[in-house]
Specification:
The protein is mainly α and 86 residues long. It is 81% helix and 0% strand. The longest helix is centred in the last third of the chain and has 22 residues.
Length: 86
């Protein structure tokens, strides 16, 4: 595969996995409820995303950095809502 094709696949994967998380954030924000979300899952997921972000920076992968930067913000919103008891 060409480098352009590989990069395109990376951006497509980044977009899909990042935007798949958006409906959960929107639902939690609108309903002000995170009761059905596991605290452990949120913390582990957020730490994993942070590590992926560090990895992406280290290897210089723009798709990995962009996807995980956005997902980290979305995940942090859910963690904050969960901590507020919503």
């Amino acid at each position: 595969m060409s480098p352009t094709t590989i990069e395109t696949i990376g951006y497509a994967a980044a977009a899909l996995t990042t935007f798949a998380f958006v409906p959960q954030v929107v639902k939690s924000w609108r309903t002000r409820s995170t009761g059905d979300l596991s605290s452990t899952m949120l913390v582990v997921f957020t730490l994993g995303i942070a590590l992926w972000l560090i990895y992406g920076v280290a290897v210089g992968s723009r798709p990995v950095v962009l996807a995980n930067g956005v997902t980290l913000v979305l995940s942090a919103i859910l963690v904050a809502l969960k901590l507020r008891g919503q």
